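question for whoever is on the cluster today: can someone run the full assembly for these? two chains, 548 residues total. i dont have access anymore since they changed the login thing
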Amino acid sequence: MTAWLVNGSPGESVPVDDRGLAYGDGLFETIAIRAGQPRFLDAHLERLQQGCDRLGIPYPGNERLEADIRLLGDCQHGTLKILLTRGSGPRGYAPPEVATVTRILGLTESEADLTPVAAVRVRYCATPVAVNRALAGIKSLNRLEQVLARAEWDDPGIQEGLMLNDRGDVVCGTMTNLFLVSGGGLLTPDLGECGVRGVMRDRVIRVAEQNNISVAELRVSRTNIENAEDMFLTNSLIGVWPVAELDGQTFTRSALTLRLMQLLADAGVTECAV
Amino acid sequence: MTAWLVNGSPGESVPVDDRGLAYGDGLFETIAIRAGQPRFLDAHLERLQQGCDRLGIPYPGNERLEADIRLLGDCQHGTLKILLTRGSGPRGYAPPEVATVTRILGLTESEADLTPVAAVRVRYCATPVAVNRALAGIKSLNRLEQVLARAEWDDPGIQEGLMLNDRGDVVCGTMTNLFLVSGGGLLTPDLGECGVRGVMRDRVIRVAEQNNISVAELRVSRTNIENAEDMFLTNSLIGVWPVAELDGQTFTRSALTLRLMQLLADAGVTECAV
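^ ran it for u. tokens below:
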């Protein structure tokens, strides 16, 4: 059951002429609710605002969105989705001179999962992730590539798929960012030209740097992965997923991954407690 | 005023959890109504069905969509929009095993514009169009690139902007396909890796071939454009727009463009009558 709020009022529908539907002209965030609080809310709102700036959509402001969140009521554990669109408009790609942003919030309460994190099985996807510097980094509503990549498998034993761009760089999972442990530090794909800059990815980088663990953002090839000591995936809801196997390549947990997970657990990502 | 039909009933809203809104997980067509009939309806429905096949969305069938169109009632002149989405679903990119497609149709009646076609002014856009063979050719709801490109100018004297991919190929206009007149025949960008395969583009190619005018689909560079004798743009609503000027380069009408416009006018694209 998800409780929805549209422009500050309980509601479960949007007008058919909303540009979010027509063109994917908008952005979203998916936020973990843990111990009654939206985790890393400031970071999510910051990315949302940056996305609005990039697309030229007026940002409603943190106060407005935080008031919406309060209206949704108390929740101990669950998932909060925030979706902003450029609102309704006449036919045609040209954005209206004055956009009336549509704010959609959905709160889904769930049981806390107390099972310890298990390493996941991962595959490579054939669906490419497109290179486009205009959309790189932000979490827009144009997510068909991820949908098609995720539709490539239905084996419930495989938890995630990795996507490459047409240059052969490994960019991201369908819903995660990826990190490699290599040479005593971390490598992660540079997202200047494609991919979504995850809030959990940022948090991993920050925690690593605070603890003198080097992080290099660069183009990552399949060869980089073959040569890596370890690999893990991140997103806001899962925290960290250590990778057990990727299309036949197996990984054993490195001390660095375990140390980072403990540091993240200390920073509020309780799923990472081992 | 647009009359809307959602899943066969008058309606102006869709559920907030529709995947068309969440991920742009769907397709659309924009169809000219001329002399009381949706022009080239078969071709539009064929492209829609091909798009559904590519995305793995169940196509509702021509009969169902034609019944929807009849329900919208009589219209002499206007624009019909058909939008299909993968319907509602739980959070997450994985498509539901059984999708219940959402059908949205909008009919906007308008006055017939009897002004003869005038040549248009065009510019180059900075927003790139992404290379992605998984989405190339189809008219999906992921159209943020076009929105951002169209937002680059607000001079009403400029009617269209051309978009390039990151390889430097000129691919399309924000809402049009493009043709060059060169060496006595036509050149048009190959759309195997990006761009939308327009219904009017297909019609131009067919009419040209039926009249022994050569058409080459290939990678088009800015140099190809600089060396072209003439240039025109196409889409379903405008028919053909001859280009007067592109960022300082002027074009004068070639006999081939005029001949093609007459052939298109004979084939039902009455806007092309000169």
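summary bc i know u wont read the tokens: Residues 41-55 of chain A form the longest helix (15 residues). The mean pLDDT of chain A is 96.
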